Amino acid sequence: DLRQRIQDPDYIRRLARKLLLENSHRVTLVMTPDKELSAHRVEQEKTRLAAMKAAMSPAQMDAVINLAADLEQRQQQVDDASILPKVELSDVPGALPEPTCREIQDDAIKLTTYTQGTNGLVYQQVIAPLPQLDEEEQRVLPLYSHVLTEVGLADGDYQEAQNRQSATVGAINAMTSMRGAVDDEQAITANFVLSSKALARNARQQAQLMHDTLHTVRFDESDRIRDLVSQQRARREQSITGNGHSLAMTAASAGMSPLANLNHRLSGLAGIRQLRQLDEALRDHTALSDFCDLLAAVHGKVRATPLQLLAVGEQHSVDEVAGFAADLWSSGEQVAAMTDFSLAEVREPRREMWLTNTQVNFCASAYPTVPVGHSDAAALTVLGGFLRNGFLHRAIREQGGAYGGGASQDSSVAAFRFYSYRDPRLEETLNDFDAAIRWMLDHKHDYQALEEAILGVIGSLDKPSSPAGEAKQHFHNRLFGRTHEQRERFRQQVLDVSLDDLRRVSETYLLPEKASTAIITSNARAESSQALREELGLSVEEL
Fold first, then answer.
1. What's the pLDDT at 26?
2. What's the rounded Cα separation, in Å, for the pair 471 and 312?
3. Among 180, 217, 253, 288, who pairs with 415 as Cys (CB 3.0-4.6 Å)?
4. What is the pLDDT of residues 283-323, one digit of tens each?
5. Residue 42 clears pLDDT 60, i.e. is over it
6. At residue 153, what are phi and psi to the nearest 5 degrees?
7. What is the pLDDT of residue 90?
8. Rounded to 5 degrees, what are φ and ψ at 489?
9. Could you write out the DSSP letters of every residue in 293-304?
């Protein structure tokens, strides 16, 4: 029928070619999205399966039933892993080396340098504590960071700035970095970072470009900024089905801490909805002008905060940066007395169902737990891998049909999260999350499974990075109170986790009345899930 034909790209191309050949004037094809497409495809699939079932003989039906029973039995079977070579906890090194740095402090600015093998590259960063921002300024933070290096400098437009970047650096970008305190998820530290990398011979020009970006950036190229917002909107909307499990976890844990709440509002589902609304609003010239002024106001606050520098490279590179850094960055401008960035405390359950155009579902449940400095953080981190390996992978992926599923402890926001990825189910998956907790508490477990979970966590902690990456990670960890001693202590706590610890933290933190839930699904699936929405008290949110 016509509905099927217009979904065929080849048919559309043939139709367009025919129209162009038959008409001498320009032809414009206007296509509107079919909001019922997902439901229509589901009905088509149900019809196809019903026809297949009707055509099957009793013997064929028995064969399918037996095959399903054999598959379930195989999924429950425990393989003999002793025949394979393995890494044991005794193979894990007791400690890891710490990168060394040099700090240079003068009246102008503080410079921290790391001497690392970087194959002729030098990495420079400008770091400033993020000042206090009102709610409107907070909402534009991701866009401010993106726009900062994509517009013009001084008297030049954005194309001249990009040509200069291409001739000087391999990359330059701005970002905001935030974490909760080691011992209190409600206390937030936030920094603004302008980062770049370049060939060592361009180190001075690289630093000058960063200086000019911070001090001469212009936010009056309204058409360019409008395009950047639209590009970001398209990119974020396209990321929903590929990153839906992360978005669902962010939504489920949005009530766990101020940082979790901000992540949801800026880069989560609420942030995507807000970005879409902003993109539509910026069609109005007055709104666009006001938005550009808002970006400039945020930048003015960032510029007024005290700066420090980071340089990573080979010895001659960091020495060169140390030689010109003070002169370049001693602008003589008066640093204003600013209040550090902070957020209101949050600790509340969230239960939401987000509707979008998707043929699959993303489910998440979250429980309030503890920050990384708490003695239970290590056991909760191991518990995530233990539940994934022992129960969730089989129940959600192998038997449930989802592309993936698991659990993890996010100590930065003090939350333990369950998730499923590209999931054909809803209620059944949420039941599997609960069943995983009961499985942990009610069954006897092998030490080998615990050892595998611990090794998985240690593998992620000890995962090597590039020399420059390790230096930058060490620097920023220290800024947020994650000293090498604290990270070594957490690592040892992970190695010491026992099965009794896993049961204890499950009983203590994974309580049904504390659970928060977030689901990403389609309009059609939401209509058929009325009972689930009422049972869990889910509010419906439209993307």
1. 56
2. 7
3. 253
4. 999 999 999 999 999 999 999 999 999 999 999 999 999 99
5. yes
6. -125, 140
7. 79
8. -65, -45
9. HHHHHHHHHHHT
